[in-house]
């Protein structure tokens, strides 16, 4: 999966993996009472939110190359669609 064809899938998988790793770290810290637990059933929500807050800046820094590759892939697809739309519009204009 090193092809630029799978850049979006790779970035998404790495982003989810980073979130899961952050959640695991937060869970271990809460289990050993290093970080405070929330009251009642809110503990899971607290840990999920904390994992999101931690994984977001990490993914911004650590996944820069994958994000750039994904954006190049998306820009190429958008450019192809614009070319198709322009070609179709010129064909329709020629019929009028």
TrEMBL record:
The chain crosses the membrane at residues 12-32, 44-63. The keyword Membrane applies. It comes from the Bacteria. Keywords: Membrane, Transmembrane, Transmembrane helix. This is DUF4229 domain-containing protein. It comes from Streptomyces inhibens. The lineage of its organism: Bacteria, Bacillati, Actinomycetota, Actinomycetes, Kitasatosporales.
């Amino acid at each position: 999966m090193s092809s630029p064809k799978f850049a979006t899938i790779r970035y998404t998988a790495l982003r989810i993996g980073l979130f899961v790793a952050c959640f695991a770290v937060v869970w271990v810290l809460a289990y050993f009472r290093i970080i405070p637990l929330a009251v009642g059933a809110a503990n899971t929500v607290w840990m999920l939110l904390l994992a999101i807050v931690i994984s977001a800046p990490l993914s911004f820094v650590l996944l820069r190359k994958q994000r750039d590759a994904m954006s190049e892939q998306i820009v190429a697809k958008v450019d192809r669609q614009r070319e198709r739309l322009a070609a179709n519009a010129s064909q329709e204009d020629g019929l009028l």
